[in-house]
Amino acid sequence: xxxxxxxxxxxxxxxxxxxxxxxxxxxxxxxxxxxxxxxxxxxxxxxxxxxxxxxxxxxxxxxxxxxxxxxxxxxxxxxxxxxxxxxxxxxxxxxxxxxxxxxxxxxxxxxxxxxxxxxxxxxxxxxxxxxxxxxxxxxxxxxxxxxxxxxxxxxxxxxxxxxxxxxxxxxxxxxxxxxxxxxxxxxxxxxxxxxxxxxxxxxxxxxxxxxxxxxxxxxxxxxxxxxxxxxxxxxxxxxxxxxxxxxxxxxxxxxxxxxxxxxxxxxxxxxxxxxxxxxxxxxxxxxxxxxxxxxxxxxxxxxxxxxxxxxxx
Length: 313
Description:
Subcellular location: Cell envelope
Keywords: Signal
Helix content: 40-55%
InterPro entries: Peripla_BP_I, SBP_2_dom
Family: Belongs to the bacterial solute-binding protein 2 family.
Low-confidence stretches: 1-21
CATH class of the largest domain: Alpha Beta
Domain Periplasmic binding protein: 26-286
């Protein structure tokens, strides 16, 4: 995942440096604006652009993460109005490639954040900023095994099948569990990043698997729905639950014991470093192929520690 630039991409980065003198809009386009996680990306992007006299920043995204066509339109609209650069969190690894290619052909630098594009789209952007989702999934799996042991059933409540972050995060969680234990995986189930869907799915999973020992909610809305379902079923704290992301709902679940932990990404950093990387490209500077924005496992014991508080939102 970290070797994302080919020789051709290095050449493209140099070609794009010709646009360095062009001031204007940096478009930050995320998977949805209806999420605290993505609003924290917005905060980071806003912090990066503050004090810039030559560039402005716009923040946009579709109503839901599953509205892929709407996100494609947002990228195409940004290209058509001649933005100086694009920071993009693609909702689909394949569907966004033509739009990113169009930006490349228009000499508009693109920095991808959070979820990657498929291999055939990697030559059209200049840098990828993300949580190492495979490492994050393994971290969550290790925590799960330490809490429940090496046997029993663990359910996986995922979000959108096939998204780059989901493939790494959930895929490596499942593989680690299978490699390191005799735990039976139940699922995964896909909420489409809808909290209410995750709540209903979790309620059904709990009813169908009364012997469940653990459950993993793999992104913010899914983990919130999972936590609420556990509380409604009277199983909060009885089934080991681990979430992903760090808004106030998930923090409260960690504090009251509904969640044994939640893995928190550097969402602020994705926005901040994403915009900073575009600015460097516009100045003709070289940028890293891949930037790991990190993950922290927040538990009841460490949630008030400064290193954890810095990534919560």
